[in-house]
Design a protein that fits this description.
The protein has 149 residues and is of the alpha+beta class. It has 5 helices and 4 strands; from the N terminus they run αβαβααββα. Helices cover 35% and strands 18% of the residues.
Length: 149
């Protein structure tokens, strides 16, 4: 379960990356957090990484280790944001190699929810965003995925 510390670190990591792109901070939504937690618990129960049927934006993350580890809330966000290296700034738009990054910094998203489920050696993290990012209509990526400030 994503405790208060995990939720705070998850939110802070998002907002630190968003600030680099002159994008307003997200706020934590208890409704989205409940939904994300339910999905994270489901993913751990089936041991499979997949998206839910939410109409909100969603990023999913999985890590497994032979040693016990305790995620802090920042690892998933760092992993998603690292996709920036693959983003084609000269041809903005959706790409499956950068969709996690673009959702993290999507300017029009204002609310965030987080769920985390672990058995000590396997962890699933789910981030849910409202309004959803990665809307692939003309001009949306240019307006919502801003270059580094």
């Amino acid at each position: 379960m994503a405790d208060a510390s995990f939720q705070q670190k998850f939110l802070e990591a998002h907002n630190a990356y968003r600030a680099k792109h002159n994008t307003p901070p997200l706020t934590l939504s208890s409704e989205l957090t409940a939904s994300a937690q339910k999905w994270a618990d489901h993913l751990l129960s089936i041991k499979t990484l997949q998206h839910s049927n939410t109409k909100d934006g969603e990023n999913v993350f999985f890590k497994s280790s032979s040693a016990t580890f305790k995620p802090t809330g920042k690892e998933a966000v760092d992993s998603w944001y690292s996709e920036i290296k693959n983003y084609n700034w000269s041809r903005p738009g959706f790409n499956s190699n950068t969709g996690h990054f673009t959702q993290v910094v999507w300017k029009d998203s204002t609310e965030l929810g987080v769920g985390m489920a672990t058995n000590g050696k396997t962890v699933f993290v789910v981030g849910q965003y409202r309004p959803a990012g990665n809307m692939n209509m003309p001009g949306y990526f240019e307006k919502n995925v801003l270059p580094l400030a």
